[in-house]
Amino acid sequence: MRRSPFSVTPLSAAIRRALAVSLGGTLCVVPFAVLAQEEAVNMGTTVVTATALKVDTPDVETPRAISTVSAEELEDRGVNKYDETFQYRSGVVSQPYGNDNNADWFFLRGFSAEGATYQDGLRLFRTGGYFWWMSEPFGFERVDLLKGPASILYGEAPPGGMINGISKRPTREPQGTLQVEAGNHDHRQVGVDVSGPVGQRDDVRYRLVGLYREGELNGSEKERYYFAPSLAVDVSDDTTVTFLASVQKDQGVPTNGFFPALGTLGDSPFGKIDPATNFGQPDYDRLDQRQVAIGYELEHQINDTWEFQQNARYTHLDLELRNVYPNSYITPPRSISRGIIDRDGQYDAFNIDNRLIARTYTENTENTLLVGAGYQELNLNYTNRDSFRTLGDGSSFFTNIDTVDLYNPDYSAFTAPDTGDPTEHNVDRRQVGLYVQNQLRIADQWVLLAGARYDNVDSSDDFSDTTGSSSEGYDDEHLSVTAGAMYLGDNGVSPYVSYSESFTPVAGIGPDGASYEPLEGRQFEAGVKIAPLDVDGYLTIAAFDVEENNTLISTSAPVQEQVGKRRSQGVEIEGVGYLTDELKLIAAYTYTDARYDANDVLRDERVPLVPRHMASAWLDYDMSRTLAGLSVGAGVRYMGETVPSANSAIEQNVPSTTLYDAMASYRINDSWTAQVNVNNLTDEEYVSGCDFYCYYGASRSVVGSLKYSW
Asked: What is the pTM of this model?
């Protein structure tokens, strides 16, 4: 359904021009608090985000590929899991490991996004193997995706890109939503979102977001409790502080999506393994994760030129995870051995980022200078009782806990395993970064970008048990640079080129006795952003070449050598817009040729789990002219053929698959709306990918909802 334009404050000269050529009615606006006292004007909406440059800038003026998904779209598509967010955007492999209720998985431009999740511009730590901060999409007003290396502004980061969820904030106008959902897989959900001024004051605003969700999947189950209060205070006409907090609890039985290739991808004398098979131990497996975050954002306009911004957040995560899993090889004729993951621990983390922004103008130029400093700290302590782990003396420990029948696992024969004395880990990590960036706009047509960042990062993992004690870590410093240029065409066609870098520290010592160097990524990107005046929408086309050096590979040496390379080249096409006043289209296509060195023999092999071709399209049709209040939507997602890991001994490629989604929404009156969403409409049984294991994709999901708004 097409929305009315927002009423926003006047922006800088650059943003006013971008609005003139931007998409009306399709995406979201980020208001500028420092201009809140000026006269409001009514104009179409545009994408304005600080994710790419840490300065509020329209996407159409940013020489990098960016995707944004609004809360409205998440609701329309019925997204209840974070890794479903970008299923209709380019450059993203969503849920490569199938449907996992204990983690969110993305691949960005052929690289894992395991260390690439952020919230409100600050890192969400995912470390220790399983101590992963879990993001709740109901708590976001939008999610941004910056594609390619991002170390210039965020420090340590993988080269594929970064995902930044923007928390729901207090609103100046009172509003509220109560939503109830029910569906198959025992899905139940209740969500509430209330916001507005505190009392009769217009300088203090609040928002309360809460959710309860439960569901079942292949013998596993999970409950989530989520509560996120926030408060915005206008200290003065020039200063605003927004306090943001959240509490979340996940508990239940984690999924177990690991399957051997035989009987899943390939034929077996005993037939196919049922995708609903659980090779874990449902009556023994356990997940209990609790996470708390509290922080703030400060904006202060110093004078007509300078602005100071600061955001900080403290997070605490407590995890108890016990999960039996199958090994990847089969014991003939039809058995499989099992191991166990058993982690118990907690972490405390702190992030702070400080920015000074100077905007200066001449008759033909507009210059935005950004100077910043950031600090990150993580302290993780946990107990490791895994059946495969590194012991305190540095040796490897592995034991099978039992075997089960592949086609009829007998859970009653299970005995709780004894994996020996636990290994205690104490992990400390710190990062300090200083950065500078300059955006120069010339003659209202050229945008030039340059920046650099210096980081010092150190990390230690001290672990011990009855066999002894050891330590791994790194102490590195790195300089990252970026540059870009963009031409803003009067017809809304804006070509650009850019260069960016990333780095990821690596713990360990090479065969020469020296510590490993950080993985170093670099990207060349060229593209065009099209947002013509007479079209309510946008189209972006980007070609990229991303390369990561210093990757670890196995050679004849007793330890891994840092002589490998990983490279991803491709083209992305993405568009959002209205074909008519009633028909909105979201479409994307991605070509990715991602390759890596698996060892000193297997070089330049295709990366597993990453298709060469992906395509998607989602159509929303507002039928109000023929049937008041009714809108329908339908989508198609194509994922091309993928390959298993080069040294996995799996000889068969994973075939392509095409999935269909659908939605119908009926606005009963101004307050009530009913909606139904169906994902994987035809209940297609497919393998989402293989590395050493294979993973079944999500089966059909049917969810009905009833929403009351005021």
From this structure: 0.92
